[in-house]
Amino acid sequence: MPPNSIKAAQDRFVAVWGQMGSAWGISRTMAEVHALLYITGEPLCTDDIMERLQISRGNASMSMRALLDWGIVERVHRRGDRKEYFKAEGDVWAMFRAIVRERMKREVDPLRAQLYEIRDQTGERAGERAPRDQGADLLAHNRRLDELLRFFQTLEGVSNSFVSPAGRGLQAAAKILGYIGGGVGNSAGPSTEATDTKEAG
Amino acid sequence: MPPNSIKAAQDRFVAVWGQMGSAWGISRTMAEVHALLYITGEPLCTDDIMERLQISRGNASMSMRALLDWGIVERVHRRGDRKEYFKAEGDVWAMFRAIVRERMKREVDPLRAQLYEIRDQTGERAGERAPRDQGADLLAHNRRLDELLRFFQTLEGVSNSFVSPAGRGLQAAAKILGYIGGGVGNSAGPSTEATDTKEAG
DNA sequence: CGACGTTTTCAATCGTTTCTGAAACTTTCG
DNA sequence: CGAAAGTTTCAGAAACGATTGAAAACGTCG
Fold first, then answer.
1. Which of A93, A141, B85, B180 has its CA at 20 to 30 Å from residue A159's CA atom?
2. A149 vs B98, B130, B199, CA distance in Å?
3. Which residues of chain A lie closer than 8 angstroms to B72, CB-CB?
4. DSSP 8-state symbol, A129
5. Does B84 share its domain with B138?
6. Per-residue tens of pLDDT for chain B, all 201 residues
7. Same domain (yes/no): A71, A143
8. CA–C1' distance A77–D6 (Å)?
9. CA nearest A116: which of B195, B7, B34, B14?
């Protein structure tokens, strides 16, 4: 096995992860930077990233900053070195929790707020009554909004129980649900289990 | 209340939903079309959509097709009318299940497959041994890949239990978890007040 | 069967987002 | 304090995905 096969695998991982990122509305480069930090597992500095990913300094800097904001990458200082190094969160579940937390905060919460506003916009104000004609439509309209709101409220709850300090809760629940769903066996143990997913229909 | 206030609310909903879509990697227009169908609740034809959303015929057609593929919009035929009409799935949970199913199929499953390949790429082949130098790095590299794979496997399980015919399972679980989440003193509650959805019961 | 209304496709265009590179800024150290 | 090293910002350039509009395909009806 050639000694640089790890590097090749890393490159491939970076590409794959970057692609996934862009499918989920995250800038490709940001995902790539994260991928690189995650897969190498060790702290890298801006120049390392620039060189390895062939991107500009500005881009590298911005992406790093964003990852820091997301809380899935942390600064590392080395004694006797003025450079800053960066290291990715190593625990996949912690990483995912951070992502969920941020996306809820940035996208779902504002969305909920807007939906409430829209709901209020046609909500009956005190002492005012909708015209007879509009009544049914309005009711149905508001019912649909409410259903959406209810849904997002539930989602909020789920996400909180996942994200919270005691958030391992969902990790456990996920496993239980996993069993229900597909009989997916996953237990502790670093052994290379390449268990195939069994469809349960 | 002016009779067109529903229309105004609909427009606003369309805008909000479209924005959300693009934040999650769905084309804005497609999300808008869906929003329109959902919020009006009744079947619309291509021309209705073109006019209301001010988009081209081609765009409307493509977006409709995509929504059909996602399984969150269905064709409706009207007797004595050659046009095709389209109607959005009305049940929020069913809609969300369809979305999860599709995104898993299109994005997560391929990702998993790729990760397996990458894993195999450096996996020890029979009778071959990694050079001593690379040993530790390789082990750590593969461990990180495995963790990711394990995670996605669990995710797959959760999603299956959600998506499957008996998928109401997660709906119930979600509510339970939601309660837990609400009860748990979670970190500085972002903006989770205003939880006054009217209960029908 | 040919004409008409409707839907689909696709190359060209347009608009948005991302990326670059250089300048401005900040921090550290002699 | 000033120089050196590092980081951030930002206007313009490039890349990418979305959108259009016209033409082809489809299916129906007289």
1. A141
2. 18, 55, 12
3. none
4. -
5. no
6. 555 689 999 999 999 999 999 999 899 999 999 999 999 999 999 999 999 999 999 999 999 999 999 999 999 998 888 889 999 999 999 999 999 999 999 999 999 999 999 999 886 655 555 555 567 889 999 999 999 999 999 888 888 877 776 656 666 666 666 555 444 433 333 333 333 333 332
7. no
8. 13
9. B195
For residue A173, tell me if it sits in a domain.
Answer: yes
Is B197 contained in some domain?
Answer: no
- Given an 8 Å threshold on Cβ–Cβ distance, is B41 in contact with A144? yes
Q: Cα separations (Å) of B17 from A112, B6, B26, B34, B154?
A: 11, 16, 11, 9, 29
Q: Which residues 50-79 of chain A have a CB within 8 Å of chain B?
A: none
Indicate the residue among B50, B69, B88 that finishes a domain. B88
Residue whose token pair is 């005012």: A128
Residue A18 placed within a domain: yes
A130 touching B (Cβ < 8 Å): yes
CA distance A105 to A195: 35
Q: Which of A22, A177, A197 sits opposite B161 (nearest CB)?
A: A177
* A window 92-111, beta carbon within 8 A of B: 92-93, 96, 104-105, 107, 109, 111
Nearest CB to A3: which of B131, B157, B197? B131
